[in-house]
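TL;DR need structure tokens for one chain.
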Amino acid sequence: MRMLEQRKLVVEFGRKLLACGLTTGSGGNLSLVDRRRGLLAITPSGEDYLEITPGRVVLVDLDGDQVDGPGRPSSELGFHLALYQERPEVNAVVHTHSPYATTLACLGWELPPAHYLVGFAGPKVPLAPYHTYGTPELARAVAEAMQGYNAALLANHGLVAVGDTLSRAFAVAEEIEFAARVYYQAKAVGEPRILSEGQMREVLAKFATYGRQ
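>> reply
TL;DR here they are.
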């Protein structure tokens, strides 16, 4: 089976999306690219994560043509491809419908650095404007919003996170969901204190080597 290890990782992290409360049912999607082969492994459209096996993970080339897998690739294949094409350092994309990040997205809010863990995404988490899911317009909006960022909120939709590995992209999604929850809860009782640009520059400098052994 081609790209068996990558397909296994897509299955593993798809199940983690459910276990960690970052989505429900078949919501969201994730992918992992092998740039040497010019192929990416992506979750199939509309299938429950608990029922996906490595053989059901879809393989697609970087032009968007399906090369293996019995079902259709995720309906959000477009923004996965756009991110891989525009961000050569990115090898994995995770899209969630996590509750607090999605709440902010439905309010039309960016996520400012009320907590330093926003630094997993950058100095803030920007907001991409609303477009119907699965459309070229959404793919372009996501790619534009994520220039220089490792995560973006999608208005009235959810969150997208990227990384050089699937583990890293998942960690970004998980930490931004935590930061979104803290920000929402703080807004419910007062006005959060936002970290300054200088404070976030220091955080981002430290994050450049965080978790790198």
